[in-house]
Specification:
365 residues, single chain, 2 domains, five-stranded antiparallel sheet, 9 helices, binds flavin-adenine dinucleotide, D-Amino Acid Oxidase, Chain A, domain 2, elongated, 20 strands, alpha+beta, FAD/NAD(P)-binding domain
Length: 365
């Protein structure tokens, strides 16, 4: 018997577990892989976002804005490698000018520090960049995700929580006021728990179909949106994150960094039917073409395949962007069950704030 079982040991499950175990609750995380944080949590840009792009009333905005501050503070306290690079969002043509203004207005509405900047300011630290106009977000940066995952794991263990690796969630049913949860590790076993939290990311649909009496009408279909990253060998002229104007479903092929100072470009975006992380080398030409629009000096010979990631979207390809979905018994009528779906970007940035948000919901339940 435990207080809380959390399905999924990505940054979201870990951040929730950290908050709850720190509040004195007994928690168990079920993670099917050999290591925590090995799926979407380690296949992303590692960017600490500011919370610019989403409507003001979205959880994506409030949790990102709060998560940004919490993440910088946590990273400093725990000595996690991170850097506030600052980010320029650029219009590469006059036609993109109105889109840039829309992003600026949204950022201001969201109470994010953001401003129009002169061409000279941008070019001083990023020579060779081709653009028409730019806005600057000083609070955007990069964090070392494996370091972040290790720090969360350390905290959870310190607060007495248990991360059960190589353990598959199989099913759950409610028995009076507790859940009976079937698991498969080396053997099959059951856990009973007062609360259950689903943060199984790309597998969330399957997880929900194995929770007795969970209404089908509340299961969001997952749309898998794959992205590729190419790394750039040798020196680049950039010292800030550079984001071209975003598309409907992604923030575009941007300039990002690892914390060793290496530079990479990506991710692109394509909806796929199945989850595989194979790298499509033939995308190189597309990358070179897109990057050349803002960096004509790119040397294609220095661009090499790096890795891929898959966004767990609940937004259909032709639909307007949906918010994170965080649902409680108010939505699905199963008391004690907290269901997270569609935790795509800015999920990494928002993770600590999501942990706090779930703790507040759970303590009130
Ligand atoms: C290409 C890309 C770029 C991104 N860039 C950024 C960025 O720059 N900044 C940002 O803030 N966010 C970014 N994100 C979003 C961010 O990565 C995600 O929001 C975040 O990692 C989601 O974490 P998670 O814990 O929900 O999912 P995951 O990391 O996928 O964790 C889910 C876990 O559940 C486990 N699991 C699933 N089913 C079961 C089961 N039955 N039993 C036991 N365990 C199970 C899985 O093994 C997995 O470890 C990006 C995402 C992508 C794909």
């Amino acid at each position: 018997m435990t207080d809380v079982v959390i399905i999924g040991g990505g940054v979201i499950g870990l951040a929730i577990a950290r908050e709850l175990s720190n509040s004195g609750l007994d928690i168990i995380i079920l993670e099917k892989n050999d290591r925590a944080g090995d799926v979407t949590s380690s296949r992303n840009s590692g960017v600490i976002h500011a919370g610019i792009y989403y409507p003001q009333n979205f959880l994506k905005t409030t949790l990102c804005v709060e998560g940004n501050k919490m993440l910088y503070k946590y990273a400093s306290e725990k000595n996690i490698s991170h850097k506030k690079y600052g980010k320029y969002i650029i219009a590469t043509s006059k036609e993109e000018q109105s889109k840039l203004q829309t992003i600026l207005r949204q950022g201001i509405e969201n109470n994010v520090e953001i401003e129009m900047v002169s061409k000279e300011q941008v070019l001083k630290n990023n020579p060779g960049l081709n653009f028409f106009e730019a806005i600057y977000s000083p609070s955007s940066g990069v964090i070392d995700v494996p370091d972040f995952v290790s720090a969360l794991e350390g905290d959870i263990q310190h607060f007495g929580g248990l991360i059960s690796l190589r353990t598959n969630f199989i099913s759950a049913r409610k028995d009076n006021d507790k859940f009976i949860i079937k698991c498969l590790g080396e053997d099959k076993f059951d856990i009973s728990s007062k609360y259950l939290v689903n943060c199984s990311g790309l597998s969330s649909e399957e997880t929900l179909s194995n929770i007795e009496k969970f209404p089908n009408s509340r299961i969001y279909k997952n749309y898998f949106a794959k992205g590729h990253y190419f790394k750039y060998s040798g020196k680049s002229p950039f010292t800030n994150l550079i984001y071209p104007i975003s598309g409907q479903h992604s923030l575009g092929i941007h300039v990002g960094f690892d914390l060793a100072g290496g530079i990479r470009f990506g991710p692109d975006m394509k909806f796929v039917e199945t989850i595989n992380y194979n790298f499509d080398d033939s995308l190189k030409n597309k990358f070179v073409k897109e990057i050349s629009q803002y960096w004509p000096g790119i040397n294609p010979d220095k661009l090499h395949p790096d890795y891929t990631g898959i966004r767990p979207k609940i937004t259909k390809p032709n639909e307007a962007m949906k918010d994170f979905s965080i649902e409680t018994s108010k939505h699905h009528d199963i008391k004690g069950f907290f269901n997270l779906q569609g935790i795509e970007s800015p999920g990494l940035t928002s993770s600590l704030a999501i942990g706090k948000y779930i703790k507040n919901l759970l303590l009130k339940a």
